[in-house]
């Protein structure tokens, strides 16, 4: 066995530890790399990636309840938007997943001329007896930059709650599985 000086042993241990952490991080996104967020006042929760931080929403648009963004890829973000609806309205009362997806599309495209959205898919999912609509959009901004958004929409206690994830179209293939997991984690209670 080699007789290494103490500083060299420490350096070797640090390198081995660093390498093992790097390999673990590259092994893929698992539930262990996600954190839980819960809003007990409005009755919803979701998972979000480690390394994402909360953004101050005090001066945000009306209805924006929470925003998180990636610390490194700052253009990647998630948000929860809450709108009031009649307390007796269910998600199905608002229409099919495609109907709701196109209604959101009209709103996105109609709010400003600096972006155009395209609905890619609209699906219904059930979780613990509740219905959610999962929507997928491609958005082109005024500068022709393209983004990819996933939304999960449901109703709860007279509110329409929209959970949205957004990234650049360029990064979409890299984060697709992660974003699908996060979007599917959104639930109300």
What does this structure look like?
With 189 residues, this protein is of the alpha+beta class. The protein has three helices and ten strands, in the order H-E-E-E-E-E-H-E-E-E-E-H-E. It has helices at 6-26, 97-111, 172-185; strands at residues 34-39, 44-49, 52-55, 64-70, 77-84, 115-127, 130-141, 146-156, 159-168, 187-188. The strands form two sheets. It has a seven-stranded antiparallel beta sheet, sandwiched between helices. Strand 1 (34-39) and strand 2 form a beta hairpin. It is globular and about 40 Å long. Residues 8-29 have low confidence and may be disordered.
Using DSSP, what is the number of strands?
10
Major beta sheet summary: 7 strands, antiparallel
Strand fraction equals 35-45%
Which oligomeric form is depicted?
A: single chain
Q: Please identify the structural class as seen in this structure.
A: alpha+beta
Q: Span from first to last CA?
A: 60 Å
**Poorly predicted regions:** 8-29
Shape call: globular
Give the helix level as a range of percent: 25-40%
Write the layout of secondary structure elements.
Layout: H1 6-26, E1 34-39, E2 44-49, E3 52-55, E4 64-70, E5 77-84, H2 97-111, E6 115-127, E7 130-141, E8 146-156, E9 159-168, H3 172-185, E10 187-188
Antiparallel strand pairs: 1-2, 2-10, 3-4, 4-5, 5-9, 6-7, 7-8, 8-9
């Amino acid at each position: 066995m080699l007789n290494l000086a103490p500083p060299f042993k420490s350096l070797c241990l640090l390198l081995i530890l660093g390498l093992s952490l790097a390999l673990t991080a590259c092994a893929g996104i698992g539930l262990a790399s996600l954190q839980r967020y819960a809003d007990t006042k409005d009755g919803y929760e979701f998972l979000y990636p480690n390394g994402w931080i909360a953004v101050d929403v005090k001066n945000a648009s009306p209805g924006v309840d929470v925003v998180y963004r990636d610390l490194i890829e700052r253009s990647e973000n998630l948000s929860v938007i809450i709108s009031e609806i009649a307390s007796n309205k269910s998600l199905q009362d608002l229409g099919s997943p495609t109907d709701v997806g196109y209604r959101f599309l009209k709103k996105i495209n109609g709010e400003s001329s600096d972006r155009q959205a395209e609905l890619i898919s609209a699906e219904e999912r059930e979780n613990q007896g509740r219905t959610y609509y999962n929507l997928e959009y491609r958005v082109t901004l005024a500068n022709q930059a393209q983004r990819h958004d996933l939304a999960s929409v449901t109703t709860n206690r007279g509110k329409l709650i929209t959970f949205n994830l957004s990234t650049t179209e360029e990064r979409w293939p890299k984060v697709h599985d992660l974003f699908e997991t996060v979007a599917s984690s959104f639930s109300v209670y």
